[in-house]
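Hi everyone,

Forwarding the result from last night's run.
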Amino acid sequence: MQLRELTAADAAATAAIEADVFAGETPWSRDVFLVEFAHPYTFYVGAFDDGELVGYAGLAKLGPADDPEFEVHTIAVARGHQRRGIGRVLMDQLVHAADMHDGQMFLEVRTDNTAALALYVSYGFIEIGVRKGYYQPTGADAYTMMRASLSERAEREHVDGSDAAQEGRGA
């Protein structure tokens, strides 16, 4: 498997996977992906198997440059390639980008998408809200999830470690 940033030449293949994986919702078209790929504050990465796009993920950098936050716009793996760890490899790229800028990450995910929920929780995402009827036209609900920034996670580990050390000394 090879990873690389997606370009305009990948928009049709990305839209084809999107149409299949998100059938019944409102999948993004080739033209939407062209706009997303061209935006200066988005990063889209694709996973390729023998030159064929088999998965993709997109991230937007938002807010001030010195205190950004990141929003996962999309992540999908072609049906014939699911359950092979490709989603995790793609997610690794997104969290690495956010961690390089010490930014929090946000995303929405269907409340019934147990595989995606498990993946996000494994990266430290927590549920912070529910968006009723978020996915159209089905009206499915979405969880809004957040992952703390690298510095916030380090501070939490430091505090948790200090608490554990205090408990170990009988304080």
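The longest strand covers residues 52-62.

Cheers,
N.
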